[in-house]
Amino acid sequence: MKIFLDFEKPIEELELKIEELRQLRGTNGNGPDDEIAALEQRLMELRKEIFLGLNPWQKCLLARHPERPYTLDYIERITSEFVELHGDRRYADDPAIIAGFGVIENTAMMIAGHQKGRGTKNRIMRNFGQPHPEGYRKALRVMKLAERFNLPIITFVDTPGAFPGIGAEERGQSEAIATNLMEIFSITVPIISIVIGEGGSGGALALSVADRLVMLEHSVYSVISPEGCTAILWSSERSSNQEDFSRAASALKLTASDLLGFGVIDAIIEEPRGGAHRDPAEAAANVKKYIIGAIEALRGMPTHELLEARHQKFRNIGVYAETSGQVFQR
Length: 330
What we know:
CATH superfamily of the largest domain: 2-enoyl-CoA Hydratase, Chain A, domain 1
CATH class of the largest domain: Alpha Beta
CATH topology of the largest domain: 2-enoyl-CoA Hydratase, Chain A, domain 1
Number of helices: 14
Distance between the termini: 46 Å
């Protein structure tokens, strides 16, 4: 059965009504075709009306939808073959990050991304898409291997954040993220990063230093989750208040349209009406089309221009003002 979010209840009711009429038609051998057609037209209009008017908090809920396609779903649909590599060569393999080499339209590429997992057992194994340090080190190891063979790099970002457990901190979580940020800036092959769901904090940043940073239409990308922001700014008694979550989400400016306006991302990839989970094949086709076009454009750039443009892209984010010899960012 499909999973519907609270704001999708009118859509759910209409889909159930259409299904009832279809079953009635199947039982009787004929049925109210005109009524079904009218309801289907109304369903299309209702989906458009609801999804064009989503607020930032509703976008967060949609980005976390349990049926939303994850990294392995996109890999399956956009690559003709994929070989996954494991381990960081220092400590262990982290199932929360997938890394390996795949072929897209006869072009070999390195692909890495967060993987949340399906079902309780698999989600626990994947740590709900929250990587440990070894996950980030694995991704960087495979990126450097791609650089050695002059292969472009694709990353899929979808994590609530890096795992904050004691073991992860003991093994150098912040150092692993910082090292990725530093090292990826110097990698000499084209890098495309796509936010496919949640882009949470440093856990997302470690895979999103790129020449082209883009987001799916209903994904989010932020320094902190609305729940975390609420817990910090307001009292614990209100930390589960949906109104406060909505207020925090609006203040964080975490939607794709917000971030495109600020110049943080380069483009928005359109999703099927109702979200990527309603038609994963179409969502994957849109992602594949963007990747092919971006790689073609980036591969024509000399290496020194590619690296300089990458550095300038991130230096230009934000607004700065100098006062009395000190620099402030606002």
